[in-house]
Amino acid sequence: MSGLKCFLYLTWSDSSYRIGITHDPLFDLGVLRKKGYKKLKLLTQALPVGIAQVLWQQISTEQERLGKAYLTDSFSQKSTFFQQAAKIWLKEEWYCSVSKIIDKKEKLLQQNCHKFNISLIPPQEEINGEEVSSQDSPVNEMAQLKTVLAGRLLFLDEIERALLEQKVSISDLENTLQLLFLNNEVEMHPGVTWRDGQLICLRCGGRSNIKETRCFECGITHCYYCEDCMSMGESRLCKPLYGRPAGKDISQPSHLAYHKIELEYQLTRAQKDAAIALDNFVAGNNFKQCLVWAVCGAGKTDVVFWAIASIINSGGKVLFVSPRKDVISELLPRFEQVFPNLNANVLHGGQRDKYGIGQLTLATTHQTIRFYKMFDLVVLDEVDAYPYHGNKMLQYAVARATKGNGKTIYLTATPSENLYKLAESNTIELVRIPSRHHGQPLPVPQIILEKTLSYKINGEIVLPANIIRCIHRSVEGDLAQLFVFVPNVFLAKRVGEAIQEVVERPPFNDFSREWVQYSHSKDPQRDEKRLRFSRGDFPIFVTTTIMERGITVPRSNVLVLFAEKEQIFDAGTLVQMAGRAGRSSLFPHGKVWFAGAKTSEAMKNAVNWIIEMNQEAFKHGYFSEELYAHEGVKLGGYE
How many C-beta atoms surround the C-beta of residue 189 within 10 A? Predict the structure, then answer.
């Protein structure tokens, strides 16, 4: 069942009353009989769960939903004799009191139902609990369902798939979920509901793309669904979400003890300092978030291993999130090597199994949408990258995946302005890794002002002599491969063809294989070309920003054309592209050129960021010793 209709009801005992919501009033009364509830009065007809939930919250307090005692606080302070007398009086007069409460709640319902274009038709009969058999579910089934749901927020069909994946069988899933809900062990929310007078999707947090539809599931003409997260399955007003915070389960210390992480290589001084700082961060209470600002090629993943070990040793769970599926797949063997026998789980869009349970979960950003207060530590790799950067849905999902007292680590070489401001204002912790593993400074980009760099209406590209010299110096002078970045798909092809014409003429050597390839987001062969360039099959790769990260070429230089196009090349993007050069100890002094008709603010900021990191590394002594042997040596703008 994908849609769900629910009733609101009031049930009472000799000592308390309770206002509930259920798909089956008889089932609820059968459960609540064990707590002394004897009668039940329906307050509404069956309504879509989203409407029923809103009305339930509007007509009742939290205390009334859990069970409110007749005696007020003032009565409880009186003598025992007075309390007994009050109880006798209340018991004799209770039916009259129930009628008054029912009348009050029905009036509240009538006042609110017009917002949903519905007319309430509450049944008039009371249901006597003596005529209802007690309801129960097997204890082992309830325990298994709680385990599968722990730290998750799922629709009913997703729960069914999770149970199937975990090889768990529940004889009556809907009623078992309702029993856990009555016991306050599982939360139930509609996929779409109203909050602060505005429609919101509770699965993804979206507000702007909620659409009205005539629904064949719940039968109403004004149902709503969310377009933002349709790719993850439909979220609707009449579709219930079930969630169970992992914090409800008592974490036990892991049987594995990773007090010392043994790596096949040594951490650099900069990495070790950062690793110690992060280990202290997860153990402390001063901050809940930490920004790790690391230069491109600093090995930022390695520095989180100690922090992850601390969480796992205490019985906690860790989520490592990356924007790209290929990164997640590549990281799994690395984590398994560092943490042998660790129960790890991998989630990305290409996998069939999506509901595994592990101490460590590696996932792409979109997979976080099904988690609910599950993780003690969340590590976000490349937090500045697509699709996480600027995506409110994914930011909402990641925040919700973290436990209330959980910690979050952001890894990036190019922090957003907001993250940077939070770190600068001491709102979140800041850890820097300002140097690469080989102990050499970052190549500082050279800005080339070239107003003749342009393209004509017919698409013909004019490559100035300065640009041709950069290409010649890179390929023939340095014997290095060359990234050539351009701002759009159109220019990728045109620049690629223009460079091909240039390199086929002297003074370039007689290269027996192809010189140039170009690629962009619409190129079906982009992954193949990326691999071939990494292998050194051709020397010049013209590309858009799709190659700004996630590719390492041992001996490479970088040329950014039309670098002044700030709407495409912001400071962070320029830093990432510059980060393709100088990554290897075989060629640490790669060259970077920003070429444009003018110097943009983004170009200036990118250069300043790189110089600032070099200065930071120099100040802390992270560079190789020979760089300190010469007084007055100038490295990236500092002495």
Answer: 16
